[in-house]
Design brief:
Layout (H helix, E strand, L loop, with lengths): L12 H11 L1 H4 L4 H27 L2 H15 L2 H11 L2 H21 L3 H29 L5 H26 L4 H19 L27 H4 L20 H10 L3 H31 L3 H29 L1 H24 L5 H30 L4 H30 L3 H17 L14
Helix pairs in contact: 1-8, 3-4, 3-7, 3-8, 3-9, 3-12, 4-7, 4-16, 5-7, 6-7, 6-9, 7-8, 8-13, 11-16, 12-13, 12-15, 12-16, 12-17, 13-14, 13-15, 14-15, 14-17, 15-16
Protein backbone atom coordinates (compact mmCIF):
# COMPACT_ATOMS: atom_id res chain seq x y z
CA UNK A 1 0.00 0.00 0.00
CA UNK A 2 1.35 3.40 -0.93
CA UNK A 3 2.70 5.36 1.96
CA UNK A 4 0.48 8.22 2.96
CA UNK A 5 2.17 11.58 3.14
CA UNK A 6 1.45 13.93 5.99
CA UNK A 7 -1.15 16.55 5.21
CA UNK A 8 0.04 19.55 7.17
CA UNK A 9 -2.84 21.69 5.95
CA UNK A 10 -5.37 19.50 7.75
CA UNK A 11 -3.65 19.16 11.11
CA UNK A 12 -5.23 22.22 12.64
CA UNK A 13 -8.70 21.68 11.17
CA UNK A 14 -10.17 19.53 13.96
CA UNK A 15 -9.09 21.97 16.67
CA UNK A 16 -10.27 24.96 14.63
CA UNK A 17 -13.63 23.26 14.11
CA UNK A 18 -13.95 22.63 17.84
CA UNK A 19 -13.19 26.26 18.64
CA UNK A 20 -15.74 27.51 16.10
CA UNK A 21 -18.34 25.12 17.46
CA UNK A 22 -17.78 26.11 21.08
CA UNK A 23 -17.99 29.78 20.13
CA UNK A 24 -21.46 29.48 18.58
CA UNK A 25 -23.52 27.00 20.64
CA UNK A 26 -26.89 28.61 19.84
CA UNK A 27 -26.35 28.00 16.17
CA UNK A 28 -25.76 24.28 16.51
CA UNK A 29 -27.70 23.17 19.62
CA UNK A 30 -31.38 22.23 19.57
CA UNK A 31 -33.74 21.53 22.53
CA UNK A 32 -34.15 17.88 21.59
CA UNK A 33 -30.43 17.31 22.26
CA UNK A 34 -31.44 17.12 25.93
CA UNK A 35 -33.24 13.86 25.10
CA UNK A 36 -29.93 12.45 23.91
CA UNK A 37 -28.31 13.60 27.14
CA UNK A 38 -30.99 11.74 29.11
CA UNK A 39 -30.44 8.65 26.96
CA UNK A 40 -26.74 8.72 27.79
CA UNK A 41 -27.58 9.18 31.45
CA UNK A 42 -29.57 5.93 31.44
CA UNK A 43 -27.92 3.62 28.90
CA UNK A 44 -24.29 4.70 29.37
CA UNK A 45 -24.43 5.76 33.03
CA UNK A 46 -27.05 4.04 35.16
CA UNK A 47 -27.46 0.72 33.36
CA UNK A 48 -23.75 -0.28 33.20
CA UNK A 49 -23.69 -0.26 37.00
CA UNK A 50 -27.24 -1.23 37.96
CA UNK A 51 -28.03 -3.88 35.36
CA UNK A 52 -25.31 -6.41 36.38
CA UNK A 53 -26.09 -5.84 40.06
CA UNK A 54 -29.82 -6.35 39.50
CA UNK A 55 -29.53 -9.48 37.38
CA UNK A 56 -27.06 -11.07 39.79
CA UNK A 57 -29.38 -10.28 42.71
CA UNK A 58 -32.35 -11.78 40.87
CA UNK A 59 -30.69 -14.86 39.38
CA UNK A 60 -27.68 -15.53 41.65
CA UNK A 61 -25.90 -16.64 38.48
CA UNK A 62 -22.88 -14.95 36.96
CA UNK A 63 -23.53 -16.67 33.64
CA UNK A 64 -27.01 -15.13 33.47
CA UNK A 65 -25.47 -11.68 33.89
CA UNK A 66 -23.35 -12.28 30.79
CA UNK A 67 -26.27 -13.57 28.75
CA UNK A 68 -28.46 -10.58 29.62
CA UNK A 69 -25.70 -8.05 28.87
CA UNK A 70 -24.95 -9.93 25.67
CA UNK A 71 -28.61 -9.66 24.62
CA UNK A 72 -28.41 -5.93 25.26
CA UNK A 73 -25.41 -5.62 22.95
CA UNK A 74 -27.05 -7.75 20.29
CA UNK A 75 -29.94 -5.29 20.45
CA UNK A 76 -27.53 -2.50 19.59
CA UNK A 77 -26.76 -4.32 16.35
CA UNK A 78 -30.24 -3.39 15.09
CA UNK A 79 -29.04 0.18 14.46
CA UNK A 80 -28.85 -0.25 10.66
CA UNK A 81 -32.44 -1.50 10.63
CA UNK A 82 -33.64 1.72 12.24
CA UNK A 83 -31.91 3.71 9.52
CA UNK A 84 -33.44 1.51 6.85
CA UNK A 85 -36.91 1.87 8.39
CA UNK A 86 -36.53 5.66 8.46
CA UNK A 87 -35.39 5.67 4.85
CA UNK A 88 -38.37 3.65 3.65
CA UNK A 89 -41.15 4.99 5.87
CA UNK A 90 -40.00 8.63 6.19
CA UNK A 91 -41.36 8.38 9.77
CA UNK A 92 -38.24 9.74 11.44
CA UNK A 93 -40.04 11.45 14.30
CA UNK A 94 -42.25 8.49 15.40
CA UNK A 95 -39.28 6.14 15.15
CA UNK A 96 -37.11 8.45 17.24
CA UNK A 97 -39.65 8.78 20.03
CA UNK A 98 -40.59 5.11 19.73
CA UNK A 99 -36.98 4.11 20.35
CA UNK A 100 -37.08 5.79 23.78
CA UNK A 101 -40.38 4.03 24.46
CA UNK A 102 -38.89 0.66 23.52
CA UNK A 103 -35.86 1.17 25.79
CA UNK A 104 -38.07 2.22 28.70
CA UNK A 105 -40.45 -0.67 28.15
CA UNK A 106 -37.48 -3.05 28.13
CA UNK A 107 -36.31 -1.84 31.54
CA UNK A 108 -39.85 -2.11 32.94
CA UNK A 109 -40.23 -5.64 31.55
CA UNK A 110 -36.91 -6.67 33.05
CA UNK A 111 -38.15 -5.54 36.47
CA UNK A 112 -41.60 -7.08 36.23
CA UNK A 113 -40.71 -10.45 34.70
CA UNK A 114 -38.60 -12.85 36.75
CA UNK A 115 -37.36 -15.43 34.25
CA UNK A 116 -34.15 -15.63 32.26
CA UNK A 117 -35.82 -15.86 28.80
CA UNK A 118 -37.91 -12.78 29.57
CA UNK A 119 -34.83 -10.90 30.74
CA UNK A 120 -33.04 -11.71 27.49
CA UNK A 121 -35.92 -10.34 25.43
CA UNK A 122 -36.18 -7.25 27.64
CA UNK A 123 -32.43 -6.58 27.44
CA UNK A 124 -32.53 -6.95 23.65
CA UNK A 125 -35.32 -4.38 23.58
CA UNK A 126 -33.30 -1.96 25.72
CA UNK A 127 -30.33 -2.29 23.37
CA UNK A 128 -32.49 -1.96 20.26
CA UNK A 129 -34.16 1.15 21.61
CA UNK A 130 -30.82 2.69 22.56
CA UNK A 131 -29.33 1.97 19.15
CA UNK A 132 -32.43 3.26 17.40
CA UNK A 133 -32.45 6.55 19.29
CA UNK A 134 -28.74 7.07 18.55
CA UNK A 135 -29.25 6.33 14.87
CA UNK A 136 -32.30 8.56 14.43
CA UNK A 137 -30.71 11.41 16.39
CA UNK A 138 -27.87 11.59 13.91
CA UNK A 139 -30.18 11.22 10.93
CA UNK A 140 -32.14 14.29 12.04
CA UNK A 141 -28.93 16.25 11.56
CA UNK A 142 -27.74 14.82 8.27
CA UNK A 143 -31.25 14.87 6.76
CA UNK A 144 -32.33 18.35 7.75
CA UNK A 145 -29.20 20.45 8.37
CA UNK A 146 -26.83 21.89 5.77
CA UNK A 147 -23.90 19.61 5.09
CA UNK A 148 -21.48 22.29 6.26
CA UNK A 149 -23.05 22.09 9.73
CA UNK A 150 -23.09 18.31 10.12
CA UNK A 151 -19.83 18.02 12.02
CA UNK A 152 -20.40 20.77 14.64
CA UNK A 153 -23.99 19.68 15.23
CA UNK A 154 -23.03 16.03 15.66
CA UNK A 155 -20.15 17.13 17.85
CA UNK A 156 -22.54 18.91 20.19
CA UNK A 157 -24.90 15.93 20.11
CA UNK A 158 -22.10 13.60 21.17
CA UNK A 159 -21.02 16.04 23.87
CA UNK A 160 -24.53 16.11 25.33
CA UNK A 161 -24.55 12.33 25.46
CA UNK A 162 -21.12 12.16 27.08
CA UNK A 163 -22.26 14.64 29.73
CA UNK A 164 -25.30 12.45 30.33
CA UNK A 165 -23.05 9.45 30.85
CA UNK A 166 -21.07 11.23 33.55
CA UNK A 167 -24.27 12.37 35.30
CA UNK A 168 -25.69 8.86 35.08
CA UNK A 169 -22.60 7.28 36.59
CA UNK A 170 -22.68 9.76 39.45
CA UNK A 171 -26.35 8.95 40.03
CA UNK A 172 -25.56 5.23 39.93
CA UNK A 173 -22.89 5.79 42.59
CA UNK A 174 -25.48 7.43 44.81
CA UNK A 175 -27.99 4.59 44.59
CA UNK A 176 -25.83 1.51 44.00
CA UNK A 177 -25.69 0.67 47.71
CA UNK A 178 -29.47 0.72 48.07
CA UNK A 179 -32.53 -0.55 46.24
CA UNK A 180 -31.67 -1.22 42.60
CA UNK A 181 -35.29 -1.69 41.58
CA UNK A 182 -36.28 1.86 42.55
CA UNK A 183 -33.30 3.29 40.65
CA UNK A 184 -34.23 1.36 37.52
CA UNK A 185 -37.81 2.63 37.74
CA UNK A 186 -36.32 6.11 37.89
CA UNK A 187 -34.45 5.21 34.69
CA UNK A 188 -37.80 4.40 33.06
CA UNK A 189 -39.09 7.81 34.17
CA UNK A 190 -35.99 9.51 32.75
CA UNK A 191 -36.60 7.88 29.37
CA UNK A 192 -40.22 9.06 29.57
CA UNK A 193 -38.94 12.59 30.11
CA UNK A 194 -36.61 12.09 27.15
CA UNK A 195 -39.62 11.28 24.97
CA UNK A 196 -41.31 14.51 26.06
CA UNK A 197 -38.21 16.64 25.47
CA UNK A 198 -37.29 14.76 22.32
CA UNK A 199 -40.26 16.14 20.44
CA UNK A 200 -39.28 19.78 21.03
CA UNK A 201 -37.65 21.44 18.09
CA UNK A 202 -37.34 18.37 15.89
CA UNK A 203 -37.02 19.38 12.24
CA UNK A 204 -40.12 18.94 10.13
CA UNK A 205 -40.13 16.39 7.30
CA UNK A 206 -39.00 17.73 3.95
CA UNK A 207 -41.48 17.98 1.08
CA UNK A 208 -41.64 14.99 -1.22
CA UNK A 209 -38.55 14.80 -3.41
CA UNK A 210 -37.55 12.64 -6.34
CA UNK A 211 -36.14 9.27 -5.45
CA UNK A 212 -32.48 9.54 -4.54
CA UNK A 213 -32.65 13.24 -3.71
CA UNK A 214 -32.33 12.72 0.03
CA UNK A 215 -28.96 11.97 1.57
CA UNK A 216 -28.78 8.19 2.07
CA UNK A 217 -29.12 7.13 5.69
CA UNK A 218 -26.59 4.37 5.75
CA UNK A 219 -23.78 6.14 3.97
CA UNK A 220 -23.82 9.68 5.35
CA UNK A 221 -20.44 9.22 6.99
CA UNK A 222 -18.77 9.17 3.59
CA UNK A 223 -19.34 12.94 3.54
CA UNK A 224 -18.01 13.66 7.02
CA UNK A 225 -14.48 14.47 8.13
CA UNK A 226 -13.74 11.61 10.51
CA UNK A 227 -10.65 13.32 11.90
CA UNK A 228 -12.54 16.52 12.65
CA UNK A 229 -15.24 14.65 14.54
CA UNK A 230 -12.58 12.84 16.55
CA UNK A 231 -12.23 15.90 18.80
CA UNK A 232 -15.70 15.34 20.19
CA UNK A 233 -16.65 12.73 22.81
CA UNK A 234 -18.37 9.56 21.75
CA UNK A 235 -21.06 7.56 23.47
CA UNK A 236 -19.08 5.08 25.55
CA UNK A 237 -21.23 2.09 26.35
CA UNK A 238 -20.55 -0.34 29.21
CA UNK A 239 -18.67 -2.64 26.89
CA UNK A 240 -16.40 0.21 25.85
CA UNK A 241 -18.03 0.32 22.43
CA UNK A 242 -18.23 3.76 20.86
CA UNK A 243 -21.69 3.97 19.33
CA UNK A 244 -20.88 6.56 16.68
CA UNK A 245 -23.21 7.69 13.98
CA UNK A 246 -21.35 5.33 11.68
CA UNK A 247 -23.24 2.09 11.23
CA UNK A 248 -22.90 -1.16 9.40
CA UNK A 249 -23.60 -0.66 5.71
CA UNK A 250 -23.79 -2.83 2.63
CA UNK A 251 -20.97 -0.89 1.03
CA UNK A 252 -18.70 -1.95 3.87
CA UNK A 253 -19.77 -5.59 3.69
CA UNK A 254 -19.21 -5.72 -0.05
CA UNK A 255 -15.73 -4.31 0.48
CA UNK A 256 -14.80 -6.87 3.12
CA UNK A 257 -13.24 -9.38 0.66
CA UNK A 258 -10.95 -6.61 -0.58
CA UNK A 259 -9.63 -6.15 2.96
CA UNK A 260 -8.34 -9.70 3.29
CA UNK A 261 -4.55 -9.76 3.14
CA UNK A 262 -4.25 -5.97 3.40
CA UNK A 263 -2.96 -3.87 6.31
CA UNK A 264 -6.56 -2.76 6.86
CA UNK A 265 -7.72 -6.38 7.14
CA UNK A 266 -5.04 -7.07 9.74
CA UNK A 267 -6.05 -3.98 11.68
CA UNK A 268 -9.73 -4.95 11.46
CA UNK A 269 -8.89 -8.29 13.06
CA UNK A 270 -6.89 -6.52 15.79
CA UNK A 271 -9.89 -4.26 16.44
CA UNK A 272 -12.22 -7.28 16.69
CA UNK A 273 -9.91 -9.13 19.11
CA UNK A 274 -9.58 -5.99 21.25
CA UNK A 275 -13.35 -5.72 21.71
CA UNK A 276 -13.75 -9.45 22.28
CA UNK A 277 -10.99 -9.48 24.92
CA UNK A 278 -12.39 -6.71 27.13
CA UNK A 279 -16.12 -7.33 26.67
CA UNK A 280 -16.50 -9.44 29.83
CA UNK A 281 -14.92 -6.85 32.10
CA UNK A 282 -17.35 -4.09 31.18
CA UNK A 283 -20.25 -6.43 31.88
CA UNK A 284 -19.05 -7.59 35.29
CA UNK A 285 -17.03 -4.65 36.61
CA UNK A 286 -19.32 -3.58 39.51
CA UNK A 287 -19.61 -7.20 40.68
CA UNK A 288 -15.97 -8.10 40.04
CA UNK A 289 -14.50 -5.04 41.74
CA UNK A 290 -16.72 -5.55 44.80
CA UNK A 291 -16.04 -9.27 45.18
CA UNK A 292 -12.38 -9.43 44.23
CA UNK A 293 -10.97 -6.06 45.30
CA UNK A 294 -13.26 -4.75 48.03
CA UNK A 295 -14.33 -1.78 45.89
CA UNK A 296 -18.02 -1.04 46.39
CA UNK A 297 -20.31 -0.49 43.44
CA UNK A 298 -20.64 3.11 44.57
CA UNK A 299 -16.88 3.61 44.41
CA UNK A 300 -16.50 1.87 41.05
CA UNK A 301 -19.26 4.05 39.60
CA UNK A 302 -17.50 7.18 40.86
CA UNK A 303 -14.17 6.02 39.41
CA UNK A 304 -15.92 5.44 36.09
CA UNK A 305 -17.60 8.87 36.24
CA UNK A 306 -14.36 10.73 36.97
CA UNK A 307 -12.36 8.92 34.29
CA UNK A 308 -15.16 9.35 31.75
CA UNK A 309 -15.18 13.09 32.47
CA UNK A 310 -11.41 13.27 32.04
CA UNK A 311 -11.78 11.24 28.87
CA UNK A 312 -13.87 13.99 27.26
CA UNK A 313 -10.85 16.27 27.27
CA UNK A 314 -8.66 13.44 26.02
CA UNK A 315 -10.49 13.35 22.69
CA UNK A 316 -9.04 16.74 21.78
CA UNK A 317 -5.60 15.81 23.08
CA UNK A 318 -5.62 12.49 21.22
CA UNK A 319 -6.50 14.23 17.99
CA UNK A 320 -3.35 16.33 18.37
CA UNK A 321 -1.24 13.32 19.35
CA UNK A 322 -2.32 11.31 16.30
CA UNK A 323 -1.37 14.24 14.06
CA UNK A 324 2.04 14.44 15.70
CA UNK A 325 3.03 10.81 16.21
CA UNK A 326 0.75 8.90 13.87
CA UNK A 327 -2.45 7.00 14.61
CA UNK A 328 -0.67 3.64 14.58
CA UNK A 329 1.68 4.64 17.40
CA UNK A 330 -1.14 6.02 19.55
CA UNK A 331 -3.27 2.93 18.92
CA UNK A 332 -0.49 0.59 20.05
CA UNK A 333 0.25 2.79 23.07
CA UNK A 334 -3.42 2.64 24.08
CA UNK A 335 -3.39 -1.16 23.80
CA UNK A 336 -0.33 -1.30 26.05
CA UNK A 337 -2.11 1.00 28.49
CA UNK A 338 -5.00 -1.43 28.71
CA UNK A 339 -2.57 -4.31 29.15
CA UNK A 340 -1.13 -2.46 32.14
CA UNK A 341 -4.62 -1.97 33.56
CA UNK A 342 -5.56 -5.64 33.29
CA UNK A 343 -2.16 -6.70 34.64
CA UNK A 344 -2.95 -4.68 37.78
CA UNK A 345 -6.32 -6.44 38.01
CA UNK A 346 -4.69 -9.84 37.69
CA UNK A 347 -1.92 -9.18 40.22
CA UNK A 348 -4.02 -9.67 43.41
CA UNK A 349 -4.98 -13.14 42.20
CA UNK A 350 -1.30 -14.07 41.92
CA UNK A 351 0.11 -12.66 45.16
CA UNK A 352 -1.16 -11.50 48.54
CA UNK A 353 1.66 -8.97 49.00
CA UNK A 354 -0.13 -6.13 47.26
CA UNK A 355 -3.24 -4.17 48.11
CA UNK A 356 -6.12 -5.48 45.94
CA UNK A 357 -8.17 -2.32 46.41
CA UNK A 358 -5.42 -0.06 45.10
CA UNK A 359 -4.67 -2.38 42.17
CA UNK A 360 -8.35 -2.62 41.31
CA UNK A 361 -9.01 1.12 41.43
CA UNK A 362 -5.92 2.11 39.45
CA UNK A 363 -6.32 -0.73 36.95
CA UNK A 364 -9.97 0.14 36.34
CA UNK A 365 -9.19 3.82 35.81
CA UNK A 366 -6.40 3.00 33.35
CA UNK A 367 -8.65 0.64 31.37
CA UNK A 368 -11.40 3.26 31.06
CA UNK A 369 -9.07 6.18 30.28
CA UNK A 370 -7.52 4.25 27.39
CA UNK A 371 -10.78 4.32 25.44
CA UNK A 372 -10.52 7.88 24.03
CA UNK A 373 -7.07 7.00 22.70
CA UNK A 374 -8.35 3.80 21.12
CA UNK A 375 -11.48 5.43 19.72
CA UNK A 376 -9.77 8.36 18.01
CA UNK A 377 -6.60 6.58 16.89
CA UNK A 378 -8.48 3.45 15.82
CA UNK A 379 -10.98 5.36 13.71
CA UNK A 380 -8.23 7.46 12.14
CA UNK A 381 -6.05 4.41 11.51
CA UNK A 382 -8.85 2.43 9.90
CA UNK A 383 -9.80 5.34 7.66
CA UNK A 384 -6.16 5.78 6.61
CA UNK A 385 -5.51 2.10 5.86
CA UNK A 386 -8.72 1.34 4.00
CA UNK A 387 -8.43 0.08 0.41
CA UNK A 388 -11.93 1.48 -0.27
CA UNK A 389 -13.97 4.43 1.02
CA UNK A 390 -13.51 5.79 4.54
CA UNK A 391 -17.24 5.46 5.19
CA UNK A 392 -17.28 1.77 4.34
CA UNK A 393 -14.14 1.20 6.41
CA UNK A 394 -15.51 2.86 9.53
CA UNK A 395 -18.79 1.02 9.07
CA UNK A 396 -16.84 -2.24 9.16
CA UNK A 397 -14.89 -1.15 12.22
CA UNK A 398 -18.04 -0.40 14.18
CA UNK A 399 -19.74 -3.58 13.02
CA UNK A 400 -16.71 -5.60 14.15
CA UNK A 401 -16.61 -3.75 17.47
CA UNK A 402 -20.29 -4.30 18.23
CA UNK A 403 -20.34 -7.95 17.13
CA UNK A 404 -17.15 -8.83 19.01
CA UNK A 405 -18.50 -7.20 22.16
CA UNK A 406 -21.81 -9.05 22.05
CA UNK A 407 -20.18 -12.42 21.34
CA UNK A 408 -17.42 -11.81 23.90
CA UNK A 409 -19.91 -11.08 26.67
CA UNK A 410 -21.94 -14.22 26.01
CA UNK A 411 -18.82 -16.39 25.74
CA UNK A 412 -17.52 -15.12 29.08
CA UNK A 413 -20.55 -16.30 31.04
CA UNK A 414 -19.66 -20.01 31.41
CA UNK A 415 -15.98 -19.17 32.08
CA UNK A 416 -16.75 -16.78 34.91
CA UNK A 417 -19.37 -19.14 36.32
CA UNK A 418 -16.88 -22.02 36.33
CA UNK A 419 -13.55 -20.40 37.33
CA UNK A 420 -14.52 -17.06 38.78
CA UNK A 421 -13.44 -13.50 38.11
CA UNK A 422 -9.77 -14.36 37.59
CA UNK A 423 -10.70 -15.46 34.06
CA UNK A 424 -11.62 -11.89 33.10
CA UNK A 425 -8.19 -10.19 33.42
CA UNK A 426 -6.39 -13.38 32.33
CA UNK A 427 -8.30 -13.75 29.07
CA UNK A 428 -8.21 -9.99 28.48
CA UNK A 429 -4.42 -9.97 28.68
CA UNK A 430 -4.14 -12.82 26.18
CA UNK A 431 -6.54 -11.09 23.79
CA UNK A 432 -4.87 -7.70 24.12
CA UNK A 433 -1.44 -9.20 23.48
CA UNK A 434 -2.80 -10.79 20.32
CA UNK A 435 -4.37 -7.47 19.34
CA UNK A 436 -1.00 -5.73 19.72
CA UNK A 437 0.63 -8.39 17.54
CA UNK A 438 -2.04 -8.04 14.86
CA UNK A 439 -1.98 -4.25 15.08
CA UNK A 440 1.70 -3.90 14.36
CA UNK A 441 2.08 -2.34 10.94
CA UNK A 442 4.63 -0.68 8.69
CA UNK A 443 5.22 3.00 9.46
CA UNK A 444 2.79 3.95 6.71
CA UNK A 445 -0.06 2.16 8.41
CA UNK A 446 -0.97 4.92 10.77
CA UNK A 447 -2.12 8.02 9.20
CA UNK A 448 0.71 10.46 8.90
CA UNK A 449 4.18 9.27 9.89
CA UNK A 450 5.56 10.77 13.08
CA UNK A 451 6.42 14.41 12.57
CA UNK A 452 7.52 17.02 15.07
CA UNK A 453 5.41 20.13 15.12
Amino acid sequence: MEKLKPDKSRRGEPIALALRTLAAPRRYIRPWYVAYLLLGMVTAGLLPVLLPLTIEAYSHSLATVAYVLGAYNFGLLTSPLWGLAAERSKADRPLFLGAFLLAGAGIAALLLLRSAPAWLIAAFGIGAGSGGAATLATLFIVEFAPRTEWEPRIGWLQSFNAAGQVLGLMAAAAVSHGEFTAALWVSVAILGAAMAVGGIGLPQPLPAQPRGARAPHLHVHTHLDIRALAVFPKLSLPSGVGLHFYHLNLQGLRGLPKAIGTPFGRFLLSWFVLAFAVAAFFSYFPLMLAAGYGISARSSAMIYAVTAAVGIALYVLTSRLTARYGAGSIYRAALLLRILGFALLLAPFLTVRINPGECGAVGFAIIVIAWPLLSVAGTDLGASLTPFSEGAAVGLLNAALALATAVGIVASGPLVQRWGYVTIPATALVGLALSVFLGRSPPAAGSSPPTRV
